[in-house]
Amino acid sequence: MKDYLQINLPDVVGMATPLFALLIIIEMFLARRRNAENPINYEAKDTTASLLMGFGSQIVKLPLNLIILGAYIFCYEHRIFELGTGPWVFVLCFFLEDMTYYWFHRIGHERRYFWASHIIHHSSQYYNLSTALRQTWTGNLAGGFIFWLPMAWLGIHPAIIFLFSGISLVYQFWIHTEAIDKMGWFELFFNTPSHHRVHHATNPKYLDKNYAGVLIIWDRMFGTFIEEDKAEKPDYGIISNLGTFNPIRIAFHEWQGILKDVLQAKSPQAVLGYLFGPPGWSEDGSRKTTAKIKAEWLAAKPAAE
Amino acid sequence: MSLWGQIAIDVAGLIAICGMGFILGFSKNRLISEADLERELATREPSKAIKRYWLNHNKSVALLATSDAHYFLLKSLGDELSLREISPKQISVNNNEIVIDVNDIGFPRFTSKFAENDINEIAGVIALGAAA
């Protein structure tokens, strides 16, 4: 077993929280100026739900923090490389953390077990800064943190991993807006409001695209990038939009769906399918996965044009 | 800062932002129009066409029947809309109200007032659905 020395790095999320509040209020005032072509994209009840989800996620995290920290320390104590805590480790961590986020996020969309937590973030039909705070209550409980453990095992100090996870979270706040248009050369390398609007859209063309955290290069590298098309405005939300603003219902609705399906499954394979298949998978094929929605859209496209 | 101090600040921020949203008038229920019905169905179920629809008393809920005998519920949620395919078995009549139970915690059971003629017609749909 190797040593674990505690190092103190800033809590960037805590530091940014007042800024989040200020920017939401500024965006609300900007939203009042919008016209019929660009309608107001705020709904007070939706914003309340989003903020309660964000607040709840912070509370739910508290009892789990010790277990999660213990898991990171365990992996770090059994690290395979002695990377230290020098400046280049911070640079390495930035890229590794961002790529880890990409895969975590992608799997969070492609596997229903993880989607059950992540769907919360997509459940708003509005796209504004408050949507960024609509966070899961069950993500860590469902084991989402395990995606970052290999970084500690490789030899990156947990505090540095937490720092860059926090920076990623703070970065992703400002991209949840319709107030900023395309950003020129910045769009080539970084995740931007335009790229992320597409990610929150339910238009078949845009489904399961742009999973990036900070750098959009991962989507470009792994084939999931799509440009926002001015001719096709994103339709935000999820395929079966919720009929409620109640945070408890928002937090657990997909888990209830999984439970119902698993209890009614006719075979062990179907149980696995409902848990780890893509969202929309069903044993009789009666429901629509993203692949099916896209296929139907592509099949209908020539006729529509 | 202590944990409780941080929580108190978060709660105050939350109340301030949400209060601001209501003060600025960002809370209204969309009135469902026929164009909304057509657009939502075309977006979600492009192969289906509306045969008949019923709007509730304040135009916040609509029931749709398609030409291939499928039924959909459209509910306004703030300024947006939420569409679900439902079975006639999920609809029931209670005096002058229609009770819709989607049986999903993401879409709670609710009641809504419809015009008397519409209720009779919807009751017919339920009876047909139950018989099927």
Describe this structure in words.
The complex is a heterodimer of chains A (305) and B (132). Chain A is an all-alpha fold and 305 residues long. Helix content of chain A is 58%, strand content 0%. Chain A contains 13 helices and no strands. In chain A, helix 4 (112-122) runs antiparallel to helix 11 and helix 11 (247-264) runs antiparallel to helix 12 (268-276). The mean pLDDT of chain A is 94. By secondary structure, chain B is of the alpha+beta class. Chain B has helices at residues 3-23, 34-44, 116-131; strands at 50-55, 61-66, 71-77, 80-86, 91-94, 97-100, 110-113. In chain B, the strands form two sheets. Chain B has a four-stranded antiparallel sheet, with helices on one face. Chain B has a three-stranded antiparallel sheet with strand order 5-6-7, covered by helices on one side. The longest helix of chain B is centred in the N-terminal third of the chain and has 21 residues, at 3-23.
